[in-house]
Automatic annotation (TrEMBL):
Enzyme class: hydrolase
Gene3D superfamilies assigned: 3.90.950.10
EC number of the protein: 3.6.1.9
Record's protein name: dTTP/UTP pyrophosphatase
Keywords: Cytoplasm, Hydrolase, Nucleotide metabolism
Gene Ontology CC: cytoplasm
Pfam entry (one): Maf
Family, per entry: Belongs to the Maf family. YhdE subfamily.
Domain of life (superkingdom): Bacteria
Subcellular location: Cytoplasm
Keyword Cytoplasm assigned: yes
Biological process (GO), any one: nucleotide metabolic process
InterPro entries xref list: ITPase-like_fam, Maf-like
Amino acid sequence: MLFDLKGNKIILASKSPRRHELLKGLGFDFEVRTKDVDESFSDSLKGADIPLYLSKKKADAFVDELKPNEILITSDTVVWLGNKVFNKPESAEEAVEMIATLSGRMHEVITAVCLTSLNTEKDGTSKQVVFHDLTSVHFAKIERADIEWYVNKYKPFDKAGAYGIQEWIGYAGIDKIEGSFYNVMGLPTQKLYVELKKFLNV
Ligand SMILES: Cc1cn([C@H]2C[C@H](O)[C@@H](COP(=O)(O)OP(=O)(O)OP(=O)(O)O)O2)c(=O)[nH]c1=O
């Protein structure tokens, strides 16, 4: 049963249509806020520390406009393989190369979520929780012609690792996953449900 938000309002600060869809799927009403946030990070960050850092950085960009009783959700997804992060590709060539590298291998998809609200008792401070979820994704060997066809048709330039598990490549090229499917798409919905409940103390 969907729990009561106790008069709080959820603000999803995300431009990602997948995140909008996933939070809708979880059953909550929410408002979307967007702005461009610099997504750069230090080379010294590895694995989960990257999306954890970036989800907080995204929260920092919105916290000044947050009102009491609003819960801000920000999130970041990275693809992690062999001690290397795969960001969004900048060209079709880069997208093809990324998928070719993922082909026939297992990689990890890590999504971090940051929940922020204003602390009503202590002025000027905010309450914040960050958590992450990790899914192992096993790609089958995918033929180059198939990769090129996918990139050309789906233009996955807005997706970490140059692919969408929810698109053709996920249907045809993913052998198995360990962990949450929705986490790969952009939000660890089950963990988010539990963390939101804890955050609101309900
Ligand atoms: C791996 C993978 C990623 N993605 C998407 C989820 C994210 O939208 C995107 C990773 O980029 P992010 O920087 O996490 O998010 P974003 O820039 O799209 O949105 P925001 O405004 O919240 O910062 O890749 C899929 O849709 N399917 C997948 O299988």
